[in-house]
Structure formats: C-alpha cells, structure tokens
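REQUEST ID: PR-0412
SUBMITTED BY: lab tech R.K.
PRIORITY: routine
TASK: structure prediction, single protein chain
INPUT:
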Amino acid sequence: MHKIITILIVLITSLAVKAQTLSDESKIKETIDTFFVGLHKGDSTVVKSTLHTSVKIQTTFTDKEGKKQLKTETKEALLKAIASKKESDVYLEKLLSYTIKIDGNLASVWTPYEFYYNNAFSHCGANSFQLFNNNGKWEIIYIVDMRRRNGCKN
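STATUS: complete
OUTPUT:
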C-alpha cells in the first residue's frame, strides 16, 4: 500500500510539473505572437508590452561582399521603426514553427520564418528569443534574427 501511495504522489507531482510547463509554453508563445501582431500592425505600444525594459536586439546577415555581420539595435530604435510603418505597407513575418525550451524563469524560443513586404517575399531566416518570467509575465529579454535572401523554401 505504501508503494502505491508513493507512486501516486510521484505521478501527481509529475503531471503538475508537466501542466505548468504547458501553461508556460502557451504564455511564452502568446508573448511572441503578441510581438508579431504589433509588428504587423505597426503598433509599437503592443510590441513594447512584450519587451523587458533592458531587452537586447540584434540582427545577423551576410553582406554583399560575403562578410558575416552582426548589428545591434536599441529598443527605442526598434519601436520607432515599428511606429513609422506606413498604413499602406503590409508586413507579414510568417513563423514556420516554434521550438520552446524552459528552465525555471528562463525560456529560449527558436522560430524559423519567411518575411513578406507588401505581399512579396523579402527574406527568410530564424529568430532566437530569450524570455524571462518576470514574476508571472513572460517578457522578451533578447532577440536575435538571422536574415538571408537565398536558400529559402518560399
């Protein structure tokens, strides 16, 4: 009888941990989805709501000379660029999948994507997001995206 109770306690505990992970995964995905809703609409307030106050933003790409580049952007510059989107412009960053890893209050998310500007293919790549569980609210603390025009499956 003691073994059965021990097994039940272990099962219930592991189910509770699994349920918490699923809940965190959905909240993390929701944070990233909200970021892209704001990007697509040109609504910097929506995007800002997903970002930690000290977020780091970078982009990597290969330039025309074949050199690997890494550019850093400020949160303010990103928000200004989003707010400057013309109403007539259509942005669509189509996320192809989500790979989410969580350990405590840290999450890592990998999202390959295709980007379309005014309904025309522009580029593809992958985003890497790091998120922090800020006392119940998942916030993006780091974004790096990789951009390329060749080798895309569009």
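NOTES: The longest strand covers residues 120-134.
REVIEWED BY: pending
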